Amino acid sequence: MTEKRIRVRFAPSPTGPLHIGGVRTALYNYLFAKHYGGTFILRIEDTDQARYVEGAEEYIMNSLEWAGIKVDEGLREGGPFAPYRQSDRTEIYHHYSDELISRGDAYYAFDTPEELDRLRKESESRGETFNYGCITRMSMCNSLTLTAEEVNARLAANEHYVIRYRMPENEEIGFSDMIRGDMVVNSSTLDDKVLYKSDGMPTYHLANIVDDHLMEISHVIRGEEWLPSLPLHVMLYRSFGWEAPLFAHLPLLLKPTGKGKLSKRDGDKMGFPVFPLYWPYGETATGYREEGYFPEAFVNMLALLGWNPGTEQEIFSMEELIEAFSIDRVGKSGSRFDPEKAKWFNTRYFQMKSDDELVALFMPVVNEKGFKPSPVTLGRMISLVKERAAFVKDLWHETDFFFVAPESYDPEVVRKRWNADSPLQMKELLDVVAGAESFTSENLEKAVKEWIAGSPYNTGTILNLFRLLMVGASRGPHLFDIIELTGRDETLRRLENGIRRLSPSLS
RNA sequence: GGUCCAUUCGUCUAGUGGUUAGGACGUCAGGUUUUCAUCCUGGUAACAGGGGUUCGAUUCCCCUAUGGACUACCA
């Protein structure tokens, strides 16, 4: 297998934002190529003019870039087989459809869409499916049933036509898939697929085979939805006399719950993104990037959805994925997408980030809130709360009390902890804190605990109240660390304010 | 309806003709912690069903069920 140069392609249609299933397909192609030192190609399959969406090409390239999937040959990168956009290659396909016709493996068909529609409806009413193939083609309007003169006349008159593949009758087509093994299909169950459309564009089937051949693709790794057309593609290669690449059909990504494949609606309903990046056009949609996922976590999560290394390792850098990836460890059945596990991956990557990296990411958020801490100060705050967060955006909720005095006090905690003795206790505490010689976490803790030891109070009572007045709630890291970073003046102010606000009758 | 593909804890999955069927996420229970979270420990939970083949099947074969894809001049 490694004799041949490994060349794979990711070939999306620019019909909208790429969804995470598509990113996974791209990722598997990329990992496979890089594992063997091969080439990863991005080819845009835009032969359907009607479904073309402005901005989709950009979106696809930006998504791959964000995910760290580097394209070797493609629209932006160029390459020896350019152009890499099918709409820029139309003349090429024409040549090959002509070749198929001259070989007798394809034919012109003049049937109108209305006529085909009528036949489909008719079949449907009998509970059948109309099949333009070996049993019906001879009763249709095409170059098999028309005389050569008629055909030439119609072509000369510029009449609309399509070119169909002439699927052989009753032939066992054997083919093989790297994930699913060997399969056999009888050609009589297949239809005469349109290869060339009346608008002068090839269909996916033709363009795909021609380009994969011309671009010297060695392995086609694509979604399972293409498995039913694999026999057709195999036949096409045979008709052209070309050696077919090896195929691998990836199982689909399924909804987290319920039936069917993952869709945009699931994301909306269950509150997780199904797209890598924000999609600003038409119906807008948020992306993993905007939700605060790290691209490394996103990629790691996708890689493990349908593939596993056969070991118990779960955290992989891109380099490790490249090293470990192999097609035969890709599963056969569809995988339900689990948003919880996606979060877990991000948590793991978040915890691996250095304080400095997190400062750089979090500083803009803090600035946005109107605060300008030094990087050192912010770094100390982050190091205190880091383990409690999974996303950069969580950090504000974990550090807000460093910047802002409590505006209210959690009623639940007040009810449970604040009683008639509390104001006096807090006043005494205030004096202790005010008298502390050096305002460090360690010293403060020592001073406060010594005072408590010599008083009738118990530690839990005092410290919980102290926290309540500092934070406004029962949350946050080590209390004395909070106090040190908050500073003497602000700490005393919060104590005074708290006593006054919680005991209006006593003040 | 037809063609093809698939089926191990709730989820992602490992695994073998003879295993206490392993891990992770989730969940539950303890522990640590002055709070919350983290963290640690432990528990819960699976071979879709029925026939074969076999001394023995979760593993191999067949059938059924269920799920999925495709069935366009879309990809």
The main pleated sheet reads as: 3 strands, antiparallel
Average pLDDT metric: 93
Order of strands in the sheet with the most strands? Answer: 3-4-7
Radius of gyration: 33 Å
SS elements, strand count: 11
Number of helices: 20
Tell me the span between the first and last alpha carbons. Answer: 84 Å
Low-confidence segments, given as residue ranges, are none
What's the layout of helices and strands?
Elements: E1 7-10, H1 20-35, E2 39-42, H2 56-67, H3 90-103, E3 106-109, H4 113-125, H5 148-156, E4 162-165, E5 172-177, E6 181-186, E7 194-196, H6 204-214, E8 219-223, H7 230-240, E9 246-250, E10 253-254, H8 264-270, H9 295-303, H10 318-324, E11 335-336, H11 339-352, H12 355-368, H13 375-385, H14 394-403, H15 411-417, H16 422-435, H17 441-453, H18 459-471, H19 479-486, H20 488-502
The protein binds one RNA strand of 75 nucleotides through helix 4, strand 6, helix 6, strand 11 and helix 11.
Short key terms for the protein model shown above:
single chain; 507 residues; mainly alpha; 3-stranded antiparallel β-sheet; two-stranded parallel sheet; 20 helices; RNA-binding
Model description:
The protein is mainly alpha-helical. Helix content is 45%, strand content 9%. The protein is built from 20 helices and eleven strands. Helix 17 packs across helix 19 and helix 18 (459-471) crosses helix 20 (488-502). The protein is elongated, with a radius of gyration of 33 Å. The model has no long low-confidence stretch (mean pLDDT 93). The structure holds one RNA strand of 75 nucleotides.
